[in-house]
Write a structure and sequence with these properties.
162 residues; eight-stranded antiparallel beta barrel; signal; Lipocalin
Length: 162
């Protein structure tokens, strides 16, 4: 039951803010496509321990121009739930804001992030509702694509006459 309540608030937890990414000298490797590895819900209205949501998948792409694309999937009660967003994000220190527009209109999500360049891991904590609740997303950068060599076309040999 608790997961379903949190999932109902999930779209509000995942919303972003219009604007360009602003930060002081971020590492170029920060801008990447990340894979979701975990999602944990902290609900301060309950005495229950934090809920680690199972069946988390999808990607988050953070572009250097301040645009992002999220494709998040969560399996709950035996069925998948999909959360797709495109919008903009802004960075200031360890704070991150996402802005986007969905069927309900424009929305903003705020939180913090921690990026470890050595492991290429990213943790995003999004403030939830009511105040004090939060969702924590763990992600890992996708391995860089290795360019493949394109074979050179060979000239066709002339056909032999008999």
């Amino acid at each position: 039951m608790r997961i379903l309540l949190c999932l109902g608030a999930l779209p509000a937890l995942l919303l972003p803010l219009a604007g360009r990414a602003q930060t002081s000298a971020p590492l170029p490797s920060f801008y990447n496509t990340y894979t979701y590895t975990a999602y944990t819900v902290y609900d301060t209205t309950s005495a229950e321990p934090p809920t680690r949501v199972s069946g988390v998948g999808g990607t988050l792409t953070l572009r250097a121009d301040g645009r992002y694309e999220k494709r998040l999937s969560i399996v709950a009660a035996g069925s998948p739930h999909y959360f797709n967003q495109t919008g903009t994000y802004a960075l200031a220190g360890d704070s991150i804001r996402f802005a986007f527009t969905d069927l309900k209109g424009a929305d903003v999500q705020r939180g913090t992030f921690r990026f470890d360049p050595a492991t290429q891991r990213l943790r995003i904590t999004i403030e939830g509702y009511p105040a004090g609740n939060r969702g924590v997303y763990d992600l890992v950068a996708a391995a860089p694509k290795v360019p493949t060599k394109v074979p050179k076309p060979r000239p066709k040999a002339a056909a032999r006459r008999k």
